[in-house]
Design a protein that fits this description.
Layout lengths: L2 E8 L34 H13 L6 E2 L8 E10 L16 H11 L4 E9 L9 E12 L12 E3 L5 H11 L1 E4 L14 E13 L2 E8 L6 H13 L8 H7 L14 E8 L7
Parallel strand pairs: 3-10, 5-6
Antiparallel strand pairs: 1-3, 1-4, 2-3, 5-9, 5-10, 7-8, 8-9
């Protein structure tokens, strides 16, 4: 029973996030005694990829993903896995010897144009895409200035304010390390601890008025990267002193950090696992 690890890229614009969602249909008739309520299957990346896998391997597999990206958030390197149980007599499953290249082609042939499998490989039976992840990188892109972006508007956040990259870089440096990030998480984050370790945080300016915030860490709280990006934007426009970052962290007060920026500027870049080499 081989377990396959998939690397998934997607444009999150038209998805309700990664995780499957089946809310109760408010317009459906009330269920009768002993009946289940009617539910709506939201368009999520997990559901779309899982359905493609089931069509290809012809068995009811369950797909597990590594990161629950929100509605509108994109990914270049989401990771998911599934277990297959090949049975040649019944013509179901995906035997390991059939190969991962063919699996990639088969899956991409079933997927919509806003999702793409970029890699597939066989992993250990106990591989857990969530629990075994040791490092992730997200990137948030901000475009500043008086001309709002057109062609890539679905992948960046635009601000009319000019930003100071040097101040933003200094603030990023002060976020690196192990801290309590309660100030940089939504109040209803649902996690037992808000302590996380940031291995790298920096701002790159590949083009004039374009600021790409890279955040690399061992894990992230709900909306944490979008709040970090909002804080860096406020630093860049002079509303927050970069040297106040340690005090904001120590306060544990969400109100002291910057705004939660919209999802379209955020992209999950990659996820690293134990035994894999360091990522650039």
């Amino acid at each position: 029973m081989p377990r396959f690890k998939l690397t998934v890229a997607y444009d999150g614009t038209d998805f309700h996030g990664w995780q499957k969602q089946e809310p109760i249909d408010p317009d459906a008739p009330a269920p009768g005694p002993g009946e289940e309520p009617t539910r709506i299957q939201m368009r999520t990346v997990q559901h779309v990829v899982e359905q493609a896998v089931r069509q290809v391997v012809r068995e009811p597999v369950a797909l597990m993903g590594a990161s629950r990206t929100d509605s509108g958030v994109h990914a270049n390197g989401q990771v998911a896995s599934f277990m297959s149980n090949p049975d040649p007599e019944r013509g179901v499953g995906w035997p390991e010897e059939r190969g991962c290249d063919q699996l990639i082609r088969a899956l991409n042939g079933k997927l919509p144009r806003d999702v793409l499998i970029t890699d597939a490989r066989v992993v250990a039976d106990d591989f857990n895409p969530i629990g075994h992840a040791i490092e992730k990188e997200y990137r948030y892109t901000i475009v500043s200035g008086q001309t709002r972006p057109l062609w890539d508007r679905r992948y960046v956040f635009h601000t009319w304010h000019d930003l100071d990259a040097a101040k933003m870089q200094r603030a990023c440096e002060l976020i690196i390390g192990e801290h309590d990030f309660a100030s940089f998480a939504q109040i209803a984050h649902g996690r037992k601890t808000t302590v996380r370790t940031i291995y790298y945080c920096g701002v790159l300016t590949p083009e004039e008025s374009r600021f790409v915030i890279h955040v690399r860490g061992n894990g992230f709280l709900y909306n944490m990267v979008r709040i970090i990006a909002g804080t860096m934007m406020e630093v860049g426009r002079g509303k927050i002193d970069p040297e106040s970052i340690p005090q904001i962290l120590a306060s544990g007060d969400r109100k002291q950090a910057g705004p939660t920026l919209p999802p379209q500027g955020l992209r999950l870049e990659w996820i690293r696992y134990d035994g894999e080499g360091a990522r650039d």
